[in-house]
Design goal:
Elements: H1 2-20, E1 27-32, E2 48-63, E3 77-93, E4 96-104, E5 112-124, E6 131-151, E7 160-180, E8 186-204, E9 215-235, E10 239-251, E11 265-277
Antiparallel strand pairs: 1-2, 2-3, 2-11, 3-4, 4-5, 5-6, 6-7, 7-8, 8-9, 9-10, 10-11
Length: 278
């Protein structure tokens, strides 16, 4: 339970830090992980559903000090993270849903950290009610972060202002199967895969005294992937509480991690929490 609370509260704490530490020199981005959906759409044709939750992410760091000239880009690393999201879904039919997700960001990113489009098709057990449920789903997500500041004294007596940005593009697909019990919860297992790409840039203005020219650094494109297996439960009907236990394998070749195995490989267990409204 302690680990669960730490993971869930970490998402809320990270959002607060985004607002208060937008001037930090670290260029770090939370990259969304594999999409996990329940096997049941459970909505009538034309019905809208809303939700919010805390989900898994990979925190990618390009550099811990983007103000340096040149910045140190040889210590990129990944680690486990979490992000808050809001979601919406629209049932085109009882068996097919399109939706989206919105992730909060920092002040400098206009409070938008990322967004995504999702689709889900329920192949078995269409409609509410007990029985076996099976769905396939996929999504395309984008995430961004922007940081900026000034550097006084380290490079030239006049210092310089700078700005940096990082972007992520994530494509993901998976499947889930489960059973809804009569007047009881929906229990399910799910598996999903995500292909993750990160890019970025750092731009330094000319120094205030005019002696040091402007400089731009295009950051190397980084490619990683994540696999997730989940055991989940949904409680309720019109308002649903979702709980999941996940096993996650991250593969980012050549990058260091707190639990490095073979260079850029890490495996851990996490928890996910969500609320859904129909």
């Amino acid at each position: 339970m302690k680990r669960n609370l730490q993971y869930v509260s970490g998402g809320f704490l990270k959002f607060a830090l985004l607002l208060s530490l937008s001037g930090c020199n670290t260029l770090e981005l939370d990259v969304p992980g594999p999409l996990i959906e329940s096997p049941e759409i459970g909505a009538a044709s034309g019905q809208l559903s809303l939700g919010l939750g805390v989900d898994d992410a990979t925190s990618f760091t390009y550099t811990t000090d983007a103000s340096l000239r040149p910045p140190n880009l040889n210590a990129a690393e990944i680690k486990k993270s979490a992000y808050l999201f809001g979601r919406g879904g629209y049932a085109v039919t009882e068996w097919f849903e399109i939706g989206g997700r919105l992730m909060p960001g920092s002040v400098q990113s206009a409070f938008i950290g990322g967004a995504g489009l999702t689709a889900r098709a329920q192949l078995v057990g269409v409609g509410p009610g007990p029985g076996l449920k099976l769905s396939v789903y996929g999504g395309l997500f984008g995430a961004q972060t922007n940081v900026s500041g000034d550097q006084n004294g380290t490079f030239g007596p006049g210092g310089h202002t700078w700005k940096a940005q990082a972007r992520a593009l994530v494509s993901t697909a998976g499947t889930s199967i489960g059973y809804r019990f009569p007047e009881g919860p929906l229990l399910y297992v799910a598996g999903s895969y995500a292909d993750q790409k990160v890019s970025g840039s750092i731009d330094h203005d000319r120094s205030n005294d005019g002696l040091s020219p402007a400089a731009s650094y295009t950051l190397s494109d980084i490619h990683g992937s994540t696999r997730t297996a989940a055991l989940g439960a949904r409680f309720g009907e019109k308002v649903q509480l979702g709980l999941e236990v996940r096993a996650i394998n991250r593969s980012w070749p050549g990058l260091s991690t707190p639990e490095t195995r073979g260079g850029g490989e890490s495996t851990e267990g996490v928890y996910a929490l969500s609320l859904h409204f129909r």
